[in-house]
Design a protein that fits this description.
Distance between the termini: 33 Å
Helix content: 40-55%
Number of strands: 9
Strand content: 15-25%
Length: 270
């Protein structure tokens, strides 16, 4: 295993609980993403969750009656996913495996394939293309592929939400380049929470157009609530519900994509 993959694996092995809790601390990402996915995913569908971490989405759709298989690089994530699934009285198949080596598992084809993690960490474009191609090989014709990206602007949002971080990130030549690349239109590969690739939002569609897919959607997973999410959740239930409705309405507006830390492309296999 390559050193940078070992770095990513070790990070998630050590931080599986933190990754599970991340979507509790960032509820709009999960709420809006499942809202969009349920346009296409129905009970009884067969679903492959590649790089699904500790299984938040796998568990959710298993509870909805889907036949789910979870694959993740980290044994720590898989172990926690099994524990959380047992607590919720759901079952699904799970494997600790690199996303580029899925063919070794002979999993067959699925109605839906999630690729919601690998492109956060694969830094070489050839490997990014390979990850999408492997995911597509496990998708039935007419099936739906869901691909997530960390957006380059996520670093700015993080620094806006966390006092004091901007001096460290903007003052470090290794990470300052990410700010410069917002202007140059390049993707960032380098240090962040672990070894990472952050996509410039303008590069997502050209990247995905390389594959035999019909675009169904591109949306910001936190929506317009991303920058102010820490404050919004403290407001009254009535106001929160109103903001959620506004957020859902605006999810697919291209000009608002940078309000989110993550973006999801949804495509139908041709």
């Amino acid at each position: 295993m390559r050193k940078e993959w070992e770095t990513v694996k070790a990070y998630y092995d050590e931080n599986a609980v933190k990754e599970w809790e991340r979507l509790e601390n960032n509820p709009f990402e999960f709420l809006f993403t499942t809202y969009m996915m349920e346009r296409w995913i129905k009970p009884g569908d067969r679903l492959l969750d590649i790089g699904g971490g500790p299984g938040r989405y796998s568990i959710y759709f298993a509870q909805k009656g889907c036949d789910v298989t979870l694959v993740d690089l980290s044994e720590g994530n898989i172990a926690l996913a099994k524990e959380k699934a047992k607590e919720r009285n759901v079952t699904f198949s799970s494997f600790a495996k690199n996303c580029l080596e899925l063919d070794e598992l002979n999993l067959g084809q699925f109605d839906h394939v999630f690729l919601m993690g690998p492109l956060y960490h694969l830094k070489e474009e050839a490997e990014q293309r390979r990850a999408v191609s492997v995911a597509l090989s496990h998708l039935k014709p007419g099936g739906k592929l869901y691909v997530s990206f960390i957006l380059l602007f996520a670093g700015v949002l993080y620094n806006l939400q966390n006092a004091g971080c901007i001096m460290e990130d903007f003052g470090n030549p290794e990470t300052k380049v990410a700010f410069d690349q917002i202007l140059t239109g390049e993707n960032y590969t380098g240090p962040a929470f672990t070894s990472t690739c952050f996509f410039h939002q303008n590069n997502i569609l050209p990247f995905m157009e390389q594959f035999p897919l019909k675009k169904l959607s591109l949306f910001g997973q936190e929506g317009i609530l991303g920058p102010n999410r820490l404050d919004i959740v403290t407001r009254s239930r009535e106001e929160l519900d109103s903001w959620i409705q506004v957020g859902k309405m605006l999810l697919e507006v291209p000009e608002l994509l940078s309000y989110s830390e993550h973006a999801m492309y949804v495509g139908e296999k041709l």
